Amino acid sequence: MDPLKNPFNPGAGTRPPELAGRDKILEDAAVTLGRLATGKQDKSQLLLGLRGVGKTVLLNEIADLATKNKLENAFIEAPENRKFLEKFIPQLRKVLLKIDRTTKVKAALNEARVAIRNFASVFKLKLGDIEMGVTPEAGVADSGDLSSDLTDLLVATAKAAKSANTGVVLLVDEVQYLTSDELSSLIVALHRVAQLGLPLTLFGAGLPQLAALAGDAKSYAERLFDYPEIGPLKKPDAINAIADPIKEAKAGIESAALTKIYKVTEGYPFFLQEWGKHSWNAATGKTITAADVTAATKTAIASLDRGFFKVRLDRLTPRELDYMRAMAGLGAGPHGSGEIATAMGQSVSSVGPIRGDLIAKGMIYSPSYGKTAFTVPMFDAYVRRAILNLEPSRPKRTIAKKKKRRRRERARPTGGSVLLRRGRPFSAFCICIQVRRVVADYFACDFHIARSAPVAAHLIKCRL
Q1: Residue 448 φ then ψ, to 5°
Q2: What CATH number labels 3-8+233-312?
Q3: 372 - beta bridge partners?
Q4: What are phi and psi of 388, to 5 degrees?
Q5: Which class is domain 23-226?
Q6: CA count, 13 A, side-chain hemisphere, 400
Q7: pTM score > 0.85 for this model?
Q8: What pLDDT, in 10s, does the model give residues 284-307?
Q9: 15-69, pLDDT tens digit by residue?
Q10: Which fold has domain 315-386?
């Protein structure tokens, strides 16, 4: 069919034409935002799920709901290799500037301005070209302690919003990339805001390990947040996500084709969009058939291999690739750490740091104690296609290991004749300490007699 009329547009955070199967999550978010609009507090939420399940799409939908409720909101995508505050503070400043244009009560707003300016100064953050128009004031968000200062800042921001009869919604994507200190400080600040009943809340999204990270940061995080799990769509919802947009585009699709798409995509939203797009393009008539889906599967997989999958694999070191190869060879998972280590021919302790690095990069996660799984659906099949047959890399010998090996060689007893057979240069006046010891043992003389290089050389020459 005509690609120009294709209703499917798979992308990172791109809203699908039919947002199916997420009604309960959006309804709960609407209740939270409605309470916030009336000045009441409600629990913050952290959306948990694998890559490609639509977490970012849901955050964008919640941002739209916040705007409809006349709530100020800021969307921040946490960077992987930079400070979270570098992106967070400029967005919070924009929120204060919006409140400034709507409120007539300036006292609370000025306090928030002071807080954000002091905070930016202490942590050396840029606020942009526009000045906040206040004089720095000692004692507000300027202690240098991130937890304390971020609490002051969010409390001041929430008070400013309350004075303007509005609320603040923070939307943070990729929360798992926050450092432990950043995450802990953010939780402490939100906890204080909740205790004071101020109209500020957070909707975050991240990989499944985020719940454990939050719990490790602060034990009360389990009571501070709700953790909706965002998974693959159930079959009826997955079918609607494909069939409804096609129907709206005045085309059709066979029931067998829908079943085939659901089976191959396992109901994951991003893959549904990918197969929907390629099935549309593969169809020659106005109805998509099962044969069209079969043809589309090849082009869809090739497209994923070139983009969605490949960009993740390109970020890995050779040793990390070895770990991923071993996991993929075992199947979809999850797999025990011992199984993976055995597949690599190494001990669990030796591959532990590699596993930790892969978790930090968001490539794998631990669904339960001692278990490991991919964060990207169908990634095991891609790894088997792409790198399973590559030769494993050899770990580089570290300086410490080299020194240890040299110490073992020095301690190993070696005769003078062996030394000569190895082809090492012999000098009567530059003989090593190991040879002197061998000479002393061989001629049954004290070491202090043989420690002189000329004497040791003389004894060896006589023997030879």
Answers
A1: -65, -20
A2: 1.10.8
A3: 335
A4: -60, -30
A5: alpha beta
A6: 0
A7: no
A8: 999 999 999 999 999 999 999 998
A9: 999 999 999 999 999 999 999 999 888 899 999 999 999 999 999 999 999 999 9
A10: Arc Repressor Mutant, subunit A (1.10.10)
